[in-house]
Amino acid sequence: MTRGLWVTLEGGDGSGKTTQAALLEQWLGEGGRRVVRTREPGGTEVGILIREIVLHHRGDIAPRAEALLYAADRAHHVETLVRPALDRGEVVIQDRYLDSSVAYQGAGRILDGGEIRELSLWAAGGALPDVTVLLDVDPDVARERLDAADKPFDRLEAEQGAFHERVRRAFLDLADAEPDRFLVVDATQPVEVIAAAIRERVSARLS
User: Fold this and answer.
1) CB 182 within 8 A of CB 175
2) What does the pLDDT look like over 28-61, one tens digit per residue?
3) CA-CA-CA-CA torsion for 132, 135, 140, 141, nearest 10 degrees?
């Protein structure tokens, strides 16, 4: 059986990952592809528990502890959901993966990004996506979108502007370092323009 395709979506909070993941899932499904749509943290029952801690715990979490919690979620998620789906030949569409840890826990929390990446790779057995879509948006624009959504911020969304600027810069640096894996898209463009760019890259990999 042919291995499936693994697509991850990255970017700051409010960049439109959920919208684009849904559109990509719909397009692939209409084309007859079997699709598994998931997220980190929270793609499994164990992950849901970890997600509640890292995003909604009231009180501080030490930065290294936070990084380890994300890595624990990642280890279980890849082993129990992602790898089996890819082995079945399915397309996995995933909201966030290790690049988010490098950006948020590395640059955002001012930890060593290289160490965070190595931790995540160890947790996931070295697994890397086939395509990573980075939806790039200025943090001020993203904050306006989040404000307009009128819902409570999670622990990371609530961080100050300097935190989100570091995160954005880290994402762009990651994309510069791996241009073959990353597709960087201006997330202020119309939704359908963004979706078309993503479909073009995914279609090329599928063929």
Assistant:
1) yes
2) 999 999 999 999 999 999 999 999 999 988 788 9
3) -160
Which amino acid belongs to residue 163?
A: F
Asked whether the beta carbons of 116 and 105 are under 8 A apart, the reply is yes
DSSP classification of residue 44: S
Q: Kind of pairing, strands 182-186 and 91-95?
A: unpaired
Question: How confident is residue 106, by pLDDT bands cut at 50, 70 and 90?
Answer: very high
Confidence band, pLDDT 50/70/90 cuts, at residue 1 = very low
Query: Any residues with CB less than 8 A from the CB of 181 and at least 6 apart, and which?
Result: 128, 129, 130, 131, 132
| Location of structure tokens 């826990």 | 105
Strand order in the sheet with 5-11: 35-39, 91-95, 5-11, 131-136, 182-186
E strands present in the chain: 5-11, 35-39, 91-95, 131-136, 182-186
